[in-house]
Amino acid sequence: MDMNKSRHLVGVIAAKSFTQDSYGTNIYQDECMTLQNYEYVCARNRDHEGKPYGVTKNAILKVTVRVSNMAHSNTLYSRLSATDSREWTIVFNAKYDSETKKLTSYDAGMVMRGHVVSIEEVCNTSAHQMDEDNQMILKVSILLSSITYLGKTANITLPITEKSEIYG
Known about the structure:
The protein has about 170 residues and is mainly beta.
């Protein structure tokens, strides 16, 4: 069982699926929320050679994001009431084009599909942040149905289903 926690990378999360074509990506800087931390546990059985088999057990992704405008919080709350699963993109060390504000490069990332199951609000108005607007911290829990790991040269999808679609 792997426990994944980000402690050293700068991450952003967008409430949409990542796509890339010859014109760049579909992620804009103003759509991204600052990722404070994330955590998930994704477990599968492995054979004596270390190859995974069987069902990937249900996973809950817990993210803490800093929300600086109401449009972001409205997006998160609308996903809480949605009946279908939606996609989310997390990228690390994102760089944006100065003119178009589109994501141009990143170190690594993930696209997850799932249902928002809870949102917890924490308002942050401490004195040491007086130069910033009052910001809200949201702790969001997402019941995952799939994770696609984004790499520099290839992407790997891990379906979280009742039957493994990869290894049978």
